[in-house]
Design brief:
globular; alpha/beta; binds guanosine-5'-triphosphate; seven-stranded mixed β-sheet; Rossmann fold; binds magnesium ion; magnesium; 33% helix; 206 residues; 20% strand
Length: 206
């Protein structure tokens, strides 16, 4: 899919104030600093559409970006930064859980995982939360440029093992990306295009 237009529409912390058009949207979620905003810029081929930072906690609101006039990418704040781990519910900000529980336009969450790290408790908790909430999701491994190709495969195999040990029956659909090298862009865009086509063929979904 070619990106012809990518425009920032609105930021807010209230799901009821998100754009109310019936257009499919894809949300990026994951720990602070994992590379959500960078990946949105990489996918859209825009340097600074979404704001990025070397310091965690940059994105603070729900940000809607309209792509090609007919679908949305959504940048969300990260979780797990400077927050004491309490119950799962309290760990994730209320407006984020509201977003996942109430946003009808959301067709897929991309859960970003730093490919370099061992499976983190907070990510597994969030993945389980999405499962319980019945939100469709894919896993997106980030920062693949930081390790060798062989290590990438090893880390994915270890992640799969961890998910199976956490009662998942199979590894969800996953992508390997690097925002600095453009890795995974075509695969992600093809996936989104395919899902969008299914939705538009059925003349909408909400
Ligand atoms: P919050 O908004 O704070 O939750 O963070 P975020 O997940 O949006 O991360 P962001 O995109 O701001 O990136 C965090 C840091 O990681 C920045 O310094 C980026 O340049 C760096 N980064 C992101 N993606 C990649 C990548 O694929 N490779 C490398 N080498 N660095 C990356
Ligand atoms: Mg961000």
């Amino acid at each position: 899919m070619k990106i012809n237009t990518a425009e920032f529409i609105v930021s807010n912390s209230d799901v009821s104030k998100c754009p109310n058009e019936p257009l499919p949207e894809y949300a990026f979620i994951g720990r602070s600093n994992v590379g959500k905003s960078s990946l949105i810029n990489m996918i859209t081929n825009r340097n600074s559409l979404a704001k990025t930072s070397g310091k965690p906690g940059k994105t603070q609101l729900i940000n809607h970006f309209k792509i090609n006039e007919n679908w949305y990418l959504v940048d969300l704040p990260g979780y797990g930064y400077a927050r004491v781990s309490k119950s799962t519910k309290e760990t994730f900000q209320k407006f984020i859980t509201d977003y996942f529980e109430r946003r009808e336009q959301l067709v897929c969450a991309f859960v970003l995982i730093d490919i370099r790290l061992e499976a983190q408790k907070i990510d597994l908790e969030f993945i389980n939360y999405l499962g319980e909430t019945e939100v469709p999701f894919c896993i997106v491994f980030t920062k693949a440029d930081k390790i060798s190709r062989g290590k990438v495969d090893q880390h994915i195999a270890a992640y799969r093992k961890k998910l199976l040990a956490n009662n998942w029956e199979e590894m969800p659909q996953h992508f390997v990306t690097s925002s600095t090298e453009g890795t995974g862009r075509d695969a992600l865009l093809s996936y989104i295009e395919e899902v969008n086509q299914g939705i538009f063929k059925n003349q909408g979904f909400v």
